[in-house]
């Protein structure tokens, strides 16, 4: 049962999955048109990477929202917070390690900066990082 104005867990999951689904659909469509116009391959690749990145199980990404809503629907919201924090921390640490390895192999630092930003949310959920109060 939902409070008026709130969506049910399945509707929240469908809403969170809509963004990555559109990115993946556009990747397929643009790669199909890449046979006629080569620049479509580039845009298709961008949509593919963006859709897959957004499916990572780290809050506030859509994959993290899917994980949290699934856990809250199957178990309960408090446990969903803990599950999403632990899975998100593990995924963000793996991604940060991969980004650091790519940086050491001559890659760009931008992925590492993004992954370090993604580490903040799971650490905050676990209670290892606190937000500064302003005002």
Structure description:
- With about 140 residues, this protein is mainly alpha-helical.
- The protein folds into 2 domains: about 1-55; about 55-135, no CATH class.
- It contains 5 helices and no strands.
- Helix 1 runs antiparallel to helix 2, helix 1 runs antiparallel to helix 3 (about 60-75) and helix 4 (about 75-105) runs antiparallel to helix 5.
- The radius of gyration is 18 Å and the shape is flat.
- It starts with 8 loop residues before the first helix and ends in a 9-residue tail after the last helix.
- About 25% of the residues are buried.
- The mean pLDDT is about 85.
Q: How does the SSE layout of this entry go?
A:
Elements: H1 9-33, H2 39-54, H3 62-74, H4 77-104, H5 110-126
Helix pairs in contact: 1-2, 1-3, 3-4, 4-5
What is the ordering of alpha helices and beta strands?
HHHHH
- Tell me the number of strands: 0
* Major β-sheet profile: none
Residue fraction in strands: under 5%
Q: Mean pLDDT score, rounded?
A: 83
Number of structural domains: 2
Q: What's the N-to-C terminus distance?
A: 37 Å
Structural class: mainly alpha
Compute the number of helices: 5
């Amino acid at each position: 049962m939902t409070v008026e104005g709130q969506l049910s867990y399945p509707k929240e999951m469908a809403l969170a999955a809509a963004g990555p689904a559109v990115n993946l659909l556009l990747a397929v469509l643009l790669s199909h048109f890449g046979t006629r116009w080569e620049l479509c391959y580039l845009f298709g690749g961008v949509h593919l990477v963006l859709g897959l990145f957004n499916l990572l199980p780290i809050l506030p990404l859509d994959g993290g929202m899917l994980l949290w809503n699934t856990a809250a629907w199957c178990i309960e919201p408090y446990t969903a917070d803990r599950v999403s924090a632990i899975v998100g921390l593990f995924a963000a640490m793996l991604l940060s390690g991969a980004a650091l390895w790519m940086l050491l192999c001559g890659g760009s630092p931008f992925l590492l900066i993004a992954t370090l930003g993604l580490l903040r949310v799971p650490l905050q959920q676990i209670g290892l990082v606190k937000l500064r109060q302003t005002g």
